[in-house]
Amino acid sequence: QMAPARLLYSSCSLEKTLLCSCSFYGTPTPSVQWWMGGAPVGANSVDSSVHVTSTIIAPWANSTISLTEQPKMSTSLLCEGKNQNGTHALSILLMPRKSSFLPQTFMKGLIQGVVYGAIAASLLFFCLIPLMVKHIRMKLAKKIAAVRAEKSPKVRACQEPKLSLKPKEPEKSTITPSSESEVLKKQDKGAHE
After folding, report:
1. CA–CA distance from 47 to each of 43, 59, 68, 71 (Å)?
2. In what order do the strands lie in the sheet with 60-67?
3. Quick one: where's region Disordered (predicted)?
4. CB–CB of 22/66 below 8 Å?
5. Could you give the residue ranges of the DSSP H alpha helices within the chain?
């Protein structure tokens, strides 16, 4: 009996290498061909990054491919089984492995962000120091000018209330009578000396 090639089993696993397997059944026994990125990969070939192993036990054809290097972005991997009665294929889209250093990359980026932010803040602060010093000096100059104005006699005269033109009432003087004898005694003392 003739039977077209049919894919009956496939699997892929990823540990240190990507390992994919395909099992085809058909009469006559199908041949298996791997294609990577549209180019055929030879059976039982050993490349530095690709290794293909095929085993045929009629009516079964099994083939395994292992990739030791990360594939390029969106590389297609095709496992094709064919005999004169038909062709059957499995297409796998390969994506690069996520880096195991993703948390380290995140932390590195976070630390770089903090460092660059601190540098930017420091530069901004140092650029603003002259403006802050100028502002403080202006405030101090205004305060000093106000204190000097209070102490200046010309300004104080202007600030004092003006005197009224009304004459003040004369103060009453008190006269205390002294005895004539006291006056004479003082005069006698002055004459003797």
Report:
1. 11, 28, 10, 14
2. 3-14, 18-27, 60-67, 50-57
3. 157-193
4. no
5. 102-151, 153-159, 180-192
